[in-house]
Amino acid sequence: MTPNLNMFSLEGKTALVTGANTGLGQGICVAYANAGANVIGVARRSCEDTAAKIAAFGGSFQEVIADLSDIAVIPQIVAQAQKAFGRVDILVNNAGIIKRCDAVDVSVEDWDSVININERMVFFLSQAFAKGWIEDNKGGKIINIASMLSYQGGIRVPAYTASKSAIIGLTRELANEWSKHQINVNAIAPGYMETNNTENLRKDEQRSEEILGRIPAGRWGTPEDIAGAAIFLASEAASYVHGFTLAVDGGWLAR
Ligand code: NAP
Fold it and tell me: Which of 151, 160, 192, 240 is catalytic?
């Protein structure tokens, strides 16, 4: 039997992606627009680069400018998204920050800034969309962006590790509560990817070599590498996948 690949299409769907101006968020926006979705990119600065990449193949994209460090912006994000394309069907909680510092020196401000964006915003933005989805009974998809540091301790990144470990637990918890409403909550755990997030690591020759030497695929990942997993989890093909974190890591976790 020939498989029906339409199940992977996002035609007629609207996806909202946070951190859409660069890196993995940009890669996911481009992939979703390519799969047929209307895409809303949320970022604290212009997404012109993302918009240009999507316009190049005639895809549909609009930006919403918001600083995701404070959950007070959520009602405005929801309202602007609805104004742009009506119902949002897919939410990707991608925006995140990392601060590198010895654990003994981490300030309360730095701890809070990482937890606010990587964890607090993820929960309350998911809650805001899930409320609407439960009310209209049409389901939805949430994809959280986890990390290798959802599984491993890392070093000099305590708030980041705490927040990304929380993402796997939160993904399972929300799936347990919302699966019965046809809401799929899943996560993607990227390995070591070439984005701003890893710029300092890649500049450090010794760390960069150590990391590369441990990746079975023998190369850093790219924003394009995340596209397949992101489309799958947003599509009807994943309608019975709940609470799972899919690693896209060049084999890192297999070592
Ligand atoms: P990135 O290029 O630094 O992207 C992070 C995104 O989050 C940017 O769009 C950034 O906007 C946005 N952001 C940060 N703070 C924000 C705020 N207060 N308000 C609005 N937007 C904000 O890094 P990336 O690698 O693509 O990261 C995307 C996600 O993947 C993050 O959750 C990261 O933790 C995760 N991740 C990355 C890797 C990796 O190897 N790269 C591995 C595992 C997980 P600005 O450009 O304005 O800062």
Answer: 160
